[in-house]
UniProtKB/TrEMBL annotation:
Lineage per the UniProt record: Eukaryota, Fungi, Dikarya, Basidiomycota, Agaricomycotina
Location of region: Disordered: 232-273
Protein kinase domain segment(s): 1-183
Family annotation (InterPro entries): Kinase-like_dom_sf (IPR011009), Pkinase_fungal (IPR040976), Prot_kinase_dom (IPR000719)
Protein name: Protein kinase domain-containing protein
The organism of origin for this protein: Dentipellis fragilis
Basic and acidic residues bias locations: 264-273
Recorded GO MF terms: ATP binding; protein kinase activity
Comp. bias regions, Polar residues: 247-259
Length: 273
């Protein structure tokens, strides 16, 4: 989608599918394009989280939840006397727009959720309950996972079973990669090379996670939350729930963009089949 110039805006565990016709080969599929849109760095964005904060809260980027940028420019350094207000440079941040890194951050949250809640025991689940909440609000604990990832890693070292601890190295590196991206890009949201570099790094990280998961030392783990748990009436409190979706009132054939019919072509255009 990055190569096509689109952002997904709703990456979650339920939208990541695995298709395989054999036991040894397969491919991943990213589904559900209901909220996907063409990325426009100069777009108007939205000050209302109800219109731009889409998708599953568990896997939302913290910038989208906070409606605020992680990067905050320093206004003054090495002051010897109190400056006048007119001498302080103000850098007005752009409106919050869902960008390519926000999609990558969603993959980070899927990974963390998988090893702590979906495969973790009850004590681990309760420890991260303040991080994964059914709310578009970003808790302090959740924000710190991105801004200071080493802290949560140290805590999980004491909680996770041995077979899952190897993933913690990649959790910490992943959070560092994301922070580096946000701080390096500053407010230049249209600077595409800052995203392409991250995509390369994240691909390496996820490849290493796959290697660990398929390794001889990693036994099959019992999943405490299955996909079916997210679809029953009595939902597990730490199972992700998608935000309520409003059905389209547009007549079929008159510009409907249902998730089943919308596709993104290689040239970045939206097509419907």
């Amino acid at each position: 989608m990055f190569l096509a110039g689109w952002v997904h805006r709703d990456i979650s565990g339920g939208n990541l599918l695995w298709f395989s016709e054999t036991e040894t080969e397969g491919r991943g599929i990213l589904s559900d394009l209901e909220y996907a849109k063409k990325f426009d760095a100069n777009g108007q964005g939205s000050a209302d989280p109800k219109t731009d904060t889409q998708g599953t809260p568990f896997f939302m980027a913290i910038e989208i939840q906070r409606r605020d940028h992680i990067y905050q420019p320093r206004k003054a350094v090495g002051l010897k006397e109190l400056p006048k207000r007119s001498a302080i440079k103000h850098s007005k941040p752009p409106l919050m727009i869902h960008n390519f890194e926000h999609d990558l951050e969603s993959l980070f949250w899927v990974l963390l959720w998988t090893i702590t809640i979906r495969a973790g025991d009850e004590s681990t689940q309760q420890h991260v309950a303040s991080i994964f909440q059914q709310s578009s609000h970003c808790s302090r604990e959740r924000g710190k996972v991105i801004t200071s990832g080493s802290e949560i890693v140290e805590e999980l070292e004491e909680l996770l079973p041995q077979e899952l601890k190897e993933f913690l190295e990649y959790i910490e590196v992943f959070s560092c990669v994301l922070m580096d991206g946000y701080l390096t890009r500053k407010f230049e949201l249209g600077k595409l090379p800052t995203y392409s570099r991250l995509y390369g790094l994240v691909r390496q990280l996820l490849s290493e996670c796959l290697r660990v998961a398929e390794g001889l030392n990693t036994p099959l783990l019992l999943l405490n939350i299955s996909r079916q748990d997210t679809q029953t009436k009595e939902v597990h409190p730490l199972a992700p729930q998608t935000r309520k979706r409003v059905p389209s009132t547009t007549k079929a054939g008159a510009g409907s963009t249902s998730r089943k019919s919308q596709h993104i072509s290689k040239d970045g255009k939206s097509t419907r089949g």
